[in-house]
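Sanity check

After download, print the first record. It should look like this:
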Amino acid sequence: MTTDTINFEFAGQVGVEPRLGRVTTAKTFGEVITPGFLDKDKTKSTDFVFVTYNGGSGLFKINKTVLNASLVPVNELPLASHAVTPGESSIIFTDLNIEHHEYRFKCECISPTVDNGDLYMRFSTDNGVTFLDGGSDYRHIRRGFTTSADLGPSGDTSDDKIVLIPDIGNATTPVAGLAGEFVLTDPADASAVTTVAWGDCIYMVVAQGLHSFSGGAVSNNLIAVNAVEFFWASANTFATGSIYMYGNRRAL
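Expected structure tokens:
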């Protein structure tokens, strides 16, 4: 077997030096490639490789349509995560940057201390020192369903926060916590409004059963967002759950 050298870059990995990998035997899904050379013949029969590089590691998909194989991240580990400490008033994620065009916030079993809490979000332009809370900073829309009813649309064209999900329950049998994802697009681009969208977020309302909500929101001004805050209405606090932040980069 001959080993041909293919230089590859990590698609969208701004500021990260390209690394090489060596394949000398057939590789399986997710197997580690150490720094060295990537065997061109082997890439013909595999779609995924796990690569270690300066600053991290990840599972990548090989784009075989170009000689210099672009590797697109697959199943990335979260950039940050936060497990709730009961009684917290807010959860803040900082250091959003232009390297990622999209941030996903995955919520697992998020519930309020006081039953039927409304979950809110705000943006920051100074990395979480302050948050935009002017009366016309945001507009948002959402629609919900129960197992037997359409709750109809609701929202606001001028608000001091984004209303993500209303009336989240805090029952423990069954667990009432919120499960779902909120996706920010181009938050660090000061030439565009920042958008956040969510779909089919599922949770329990103690007296009314299972609910599902979808929605979206935008900043009413052109801003570069570098931090977000999750918090509750009426000084409610977090009781349970975790939030994970993932970042997606555009392929080069």
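If your output differs, re-run the checksum step. Summary of this record's structure: Residues 1-47, 52-56, 62-75 have pLDDT under 50 and may be disordered.
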